[in-house]
Amino acid sequence: MEETEKQERRDDLFSKVVRAGKRTYFFDVKATRTNQQYITITESKRRFNEEQGKFFYEKHKVFLYGEDFDKFKDGLNDAITFIETGEDNQKKEPPEDSEIKDEISSTIDVKFEDLGGDNAV
Question: What gap in Å lies between CA 27 and CA 42, rounded to an integer?
Fold first, then answer.
């Protein structure tokens, strides 16, 4: 595959810049190699380095994938509503089955010796 083709794949499909006081937010829609679209949200703040006497940009990035759009949007809307009205309208929902399985599997104690092989440490 040619380098220009690889670069085109990484290019933004959509981009929106939001300037908000001392911060700038970038909302970029990109696509994976399998053409699944996702959003990157980048917060950029201009900072001053006292030692070097120069300005630099501090960036923080969040990757948001399609399967999470609805939950992310709901959570963001709930947070904004709370700030604007002071009301907590969240419903207490039980965790999904997959979340419970993930939580259980993350608590299993695995020892390196259990992994087998002659090179076990």
Answer: 7
